[in-house]
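Because discrete structure vocabularies remain unfamiliar, we turn briefly to a single example record, giving the amino acid sequence and backbone structure tokens:
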Amino acid sequence: MTRIESDLQAVVVTPSEVYEFLCDLRNYGQLMPSVVTNFTAKEKEADFEISGLGKIHVEITKTIPGERIDLTPSGKLPFTFDLAWEIEDNNGKADVKAIANADLNVFMKMIAEPQLKKFVQAQAETLKTHFENLKA
């Protein structure tokens, strides 16, 4: 498995606020980078397309309140992967990281790893900006 992580983002709200926001997949429409199209969501599941990877259906499959959210994709994917958010308390504020774990062969690693890195990095940065704008 290849672990692909965003940079750690210092978010200006509590871990529980970040957790509650991320537990509702309808909020993810605000976080999607430009490589994502056709985003639709219900509270615990979403569908979208990532340029170069195809259509993806994700569901929240496991949570640890205030600390972690695991999402499992399904659909006609060229490889298996999962997504997660890790949330840590840093003096009452949240440190957040988006993660993708992907089962990539050498060829797929060259193609998919950069796309997944851009995806998780853009989501994490947009999450931070979202909460900064709410506090402004």
